Amino acid sequence: MKPNQIILALLFATLGANGAPADRPLPGIRFSTQEGRLRVEANGKLLTEYYFTNVPRPFCYPLIGPGGAEMTRNYPMKKVEGEETDHPHHRSFWFTHGAVNGVDFWTDHETAGRIIHRGFTELTPGLKSGSFKARNDWVTKDGKLICTDDRTMTFYAPGKEDERIIDCAITMHAGADGLVFGDTKEGSFAIRVAETMPSKKGRGDMLNSEGDRGAKAWGKRARWCDYWGPVGDSVVGVAIFDHPGNPNHPTWWHARDYGLFAANPFGKHDFENLKDKAAGEVKVAANSSVTFRYRVILHRGTAREADLPGKYSDYTSDTKSK
Predict the structure, then answer these.
(1) In this structure, what CATH number is given to the domain that contains residue 80?
(2) Which domain holds residue 25?
(3) What is the pLDDT of residues 194-219, one digit of tens each?
């Protein structure tokens, strides 16, 4: 999409059908930009904001779930009394990895690489769903280009108040040197849940598709994993679905009882305690690409109450038909 088309799409997203500012919230998924971030609204209410300027890597913050529940930690975007301030690179909801051609893109260390937003290539509001496509450069501290990505995020307008659905597809493009995703637990498709949800504090819990619960879910392979706990007066959860077409499906889970929740298809030697430190490497040939797809579901109640096996079956059936 050309820049002028994106401007028109943003204008349409914020105007009523007659071209005048809407006097009531518009249905569906709408976008607007402000101060280096893209605001995503579902039926007139904030769902998330995509931060893309002056940040180490793009991320979404906050994630607003059913009933207005803020389901990700505020730090380091905002300091809130009582919240932990560990791992400042855990910015709400993001995708990256700790070893890409040997470069750390996971942490904010002074030697780490950066993921730089180069522009939106498509922006499509809609009644049932809306999506954006963005392009990024992965560069070293010294500015050397390692690879690029094209990512698509699709947001579904809630048909009912007890869940929100987000689909993500990230296509990584290798250059002339190819790509090596190194075997490390530090990655990759990640969420830092709200401070009241972690199971370590005896409030929330985790469950994966294979029945591993709580801290036992860490390092295990599973088709999906769910993290739930109290936020305000309600119990809410967030599930991540690993697409069957992803490399190393079913993925390993870097799911911590203190609040980190991540699908990591590259960390085999860390998670399985193997001597071979390259056991989980994924290589991409020069000038080719690889795509990672995930679904995120923000839901009311526990994993069992949310019927995640049924929803995962729906997800795989839907994606096979496309």
Answers:
(1) 2.70.98
(2) 3-320
(3) 999 997 876 899 999 999 999 999 99
